[in-house]
Specification:
This protein is α/β, with parallel strands linked by helices and about 325 residues long. The chain is built from eleven helices and eleven strands. The strands form two sheets. Strands 6-7-8-9-11-10 form a six-stranded mixed beta sheet. The longest helix is centred in the N-terminal third of the chain and has 16 residues.
């Protein structure tokens, strides 16, 4: 059942012993929305715990160890999860069919929860949570504001992407007024790179190839690159944005080899190309200009399959 912001808050007010989940390989919005909701619920006197996949060091400042204390949860809430298959393998098997409330902002959301708060006009799940808390008159603490700012800033590319609306900027302004250190967060997330990441990025960029008269750029990441640089997928989320930054590129693709030999594909596009439509071909989804999917097969087969679909999307442009 679809619910409004106020109805979602009322549901949360009535329950206790809450488990919060988000998608695997968490990005800034996943981390931010999880811990913003955690802090807000704790401040309401709720018993809350979180389960989250490995978090990048740059995104880890909202995380607190107390959030992982185990108890017998009664209700499960997801944040920033567009499809239950995006949960980790463990949480999917344990809780995939037990979600009481899902809070999300993806237009391509595939409903799986008993109650759904979905705002596809919001820039981030953190923006949805801000609107829910503000609409209910809930005071937003400094810790909650910091976590919410992380999600809004990262999902808008530090307010550079087209999903940044006037309301998004209002939300960011309110969060800064409540104590979110925007300059420090922006520096850590967008301007600071570890030496290991710099080495990784060099290897990644060396793999870059362009196709279709320069309208498509593809980077292929291998497990060997992680091994050689001492990095992991959790440390390298920002690589997804690089191919699209090249002049003339309408479809930027990063294909990451996973430990099990399958491939995670991140697609970032510029108008008029839809990343969501490209990824939906392979059972994935996301936003119009940022989406993802997963494929199996040999590396060349995966690359060729993705290029075939992108070629169709570019043929009349």
């Amino acid at each position: 059942m679809n619910v409004t912001h106020n109805e979602a808050f009322a549901l949360l007010e009535k329950i206790d012993n809450i488990l919060i989940l988000t998608h695997r390989s968490p990005d800034g919005d996943a981390v931010g929305s999880m811990f913003a909701l955690y802090y807000a619920l704790k401040e309401m006197g709720k018993n809350v715990r979180c389960i989250i996949d490995t978090v990048s060091t740059a995104l880890s400042f909202p995380v607190c160890e107390e959030a992982f204390t185990e108890f017998n949860e009664e209700y499960v809430v997801t944040v920033d999860v567009a499809d239950k298959k995006l949960l980790t393998e463990e949480t999917l098997s344990l809780y995939g069919d037990k979600v009481y409330l899902a809070i999300d902002h993806h237009e391509a959301n595939k409903p799986f929860a008993e109650n759904m708060l979905l705002d596809a006009n919001a820039s981030a799940a953190c923006e949805v949570i801000f609107d829910m808390l503000e609409g209910a008159g809930k005071e937003i603490s400094k810790k909650t504001a910091e976590a919410l700012y992380l999600g809004v800033a990262t999902d808008t590319g530090c307010f550079r992407y087209p999903n940044t609306t006037a309301h998004t900027l209002y939300v960011a302004s309110e969060l800064v007024s409540k104590g979110a250190p925007n300059g420090e967060i922006n520096r850590i997330v967008f301007e600071t790179k570890s030496r290991a990441y710099v080495q990784f990025e060099t290897l990644a960029m060396n793999s870059l190839k362009t196709y279709f008269d320069g309208k498509c750029a593809v980077i292929v990441i291998t497990q060997d690159m992680y091994k050689r640089t001492g990095t992991s997928e959790a440390d390298t989320h920002s690589i997804a944005a690089l191919p699209r930054q090249i002049e003339g590129v309408l479809a930027g693709v990063v294909i990451k080899e996973k430990k099990d030999g399958t491939y995670k594909v991140s697609v970032r596009t510029n108008e008029p190309v839809s990343a969501a439509e490209i990824c939906e071909t392979f059972g994935g989804g996301g936003h119009r200009l940022a989406a993802g999917c997963e494929l199996s097969g040999r590396q060349t087969e995966v690359v060729n399959a993705v290029l075939k679909v992108i070629g169709e999307a570019l043929k009349d442009i």
